[in-house]
User: Which sequence fits this backbone?
């Protein structure tokens, strides 16, 4: 029924809410790392959300911020790097991969938000290709990718930069024939237009956050590359549909039952970020979202299974 | 310096506190299961605590209670088993392994204690031999075993039963040459005497809990097979030393700085169970225990690393 088979893995309904591991499973494992991705899949969560930026030598790598984060980056001597960390766009892949992102500094504000995250050593920022190769392993064939593009706000030529990033990423995805398992995802709606132009075979997922909720959100970059959502003359689902998207990915506090219903009427799927609080998890189930992006997939699994709900097609987790 | 090389992996001091995953890592993964054990090792925790009981066909298997627990056991149809679950001693290994212990029922009291534990499907109660074979894999050579014997309080011939259990377990450990990585551990101090007689090459670890703290503890069995600790005419460390033990494993609320110092003066190591609360974790670090048995190893790693402390010999996790 859908033009995009990729979306089947993100569609809820009928006692089912999809789980999407946020940056892997940031509550449990170091974010945006291969051990975190493997853990997420190993507990039966098939969709990974992760972030892509580009190095100085033009290699797409998996990292959330345009700068290295001092609260989870150690140098070769095991010392935390100084704040502010260098821009990833100014380091080569080789330079980046001398650094260790397996541990979170328990003294940092950011570290205190994830007190149970395991502390690993010798974990490198992965290139996108590492994750794509992993997705292509026969035992990982269930894996779906929610690939978030991060726009570099400090880039000298933002338009040229984003065209190059999208082109590189699309080419790497296609080289592994992973288009049918990949959703392209961003706050940068202009970049998503570029995606639709360069890769019409992959669905696009439109992130949003209302300015009134920005302070309480998870977002670190103060100058996110995104539209002025507060100035829209229509609802967010309408705007996503008009932009040509297939998925709307709102911030949890912005979600209402009416908006979810409206999105569904417009033929959109709704995945919500980032839902960690048990009451919010329940509210998202109740308003009927398709998918929950979470740092704590075990927690959401438990809330779903306790009410006889599933997150996979094979009734994984369902109890009679 | 020690007669028991097994103890080196459990010795703290010098900025080091050892981590021991309780039933694997029960806060994160299903307890006493192979996926939980693998996760624990994968995050850099080398010591596993787990529980051994015997099936009807006399196979040592890894499970905490003498009865199957309805809050985390599903039958072949995916239904939770009825309370009270059958005694493990009345089922064969084959019968046991038709059941799924990968998920925890979020509606149960026990399930609510571990709300972040992942919900897996198709996870079986492992035989002890499965874990021993896993420990013998070349990539798992760092693994140390804190093997807890559970005495069956309902056995018809408790003495004969415990002799048979100890003999079977010791023979399986020896068959894989794992004696030098195994500590024998129990609340049943008579059983530990049997261990000392049958396996003098393996150190013994004496569990204790003062009756005054029993209510607040983790222990489910109402009639634990253990001495009447409240009636001892000497301190617990003195009693362990007199009994011939090498390690004392007290309940966290029973631990004081003086008792830890006394245990160390007597040449004992001190590992404490089960320490999940951040304030208690810090208190255990401060009173100088050797090891912390925890359901949340990531949490303890983070508290240790934030103060420049380590849990492994290779300065794993240490930050400069």
Assistant:
């Amino acid at each position: 029924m859908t033009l995009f088979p990729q979306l089947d893995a993100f569609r809820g309904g009928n006692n089912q809410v999809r789980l999407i591991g946020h940056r892997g499973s940031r509550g449990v494992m170091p974010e945006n790392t291969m051990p975190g991705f493997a853990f997420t899949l190993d507990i039966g969560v098939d969709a990974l959300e992760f972030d892509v930026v580009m190095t100085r030598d033009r290699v797409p790598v998996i990292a959330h911020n345009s700068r290295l984060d001092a609260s989870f980056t150690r140098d070769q001597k095991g010392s935390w790097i100084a704040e502010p960390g260098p821009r990833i766009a100014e380091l080569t892949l080789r330079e980046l991969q001398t650094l260790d992102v397996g541990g979170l500094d328990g003294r940092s504000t950011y570290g205190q938000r994830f007190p149970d995250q395991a502390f690993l050593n010798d974990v490198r920022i992965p290139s996108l290709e590492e994750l794509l190769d992993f997705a292509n392993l026969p035992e990982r064939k269930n894996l779906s990718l929610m690939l978030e593009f991060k726009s570099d706000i400090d880039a000298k030529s933002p338009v040229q930069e984003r065209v190059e990033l999208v082109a590189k990423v699309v080419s790497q995805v296609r080289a592994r024939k992973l288009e049918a398992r990949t959703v392209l995802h961003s706050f940068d709606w202009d970049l998503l237009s570029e995606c639709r132009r360069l890769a019409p075979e992959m669905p696009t997922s439109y992130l949003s956050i209302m300015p009134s909720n920005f302070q309480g959100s998870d977002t670190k970059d103060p100058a996110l590359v995104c539209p002025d959502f507060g100035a829209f003359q229509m609802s967010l689902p309408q705007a996503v549909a008009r932009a040509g998207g297939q998925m709307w990915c709102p911030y949890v506090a912005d979600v209402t039952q009416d908006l979810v219903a409206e999105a569904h009427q417009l033929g959109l799927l709704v995945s919500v970020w980032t839902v960690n609080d048990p009451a919010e998890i329940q509210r998202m189930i109740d308003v009927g979202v398709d998918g929950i992006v979470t740092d704590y997939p075990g927690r959401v699994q438990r809330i779903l299974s306790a009410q006889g709900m599933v997150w996979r097609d094979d009734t994984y987790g369902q109890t009679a």
User: Anything to note?
Assistant: Residues 5-67+121-306 of chain A form a domain with the TIM Barrel fold (CATH 3.20.20.190). Chain A has one domain: 5-67+121-306. The longest strand of chain A covers residues 47-54. The radius of gyration of chain A is 18 Å.
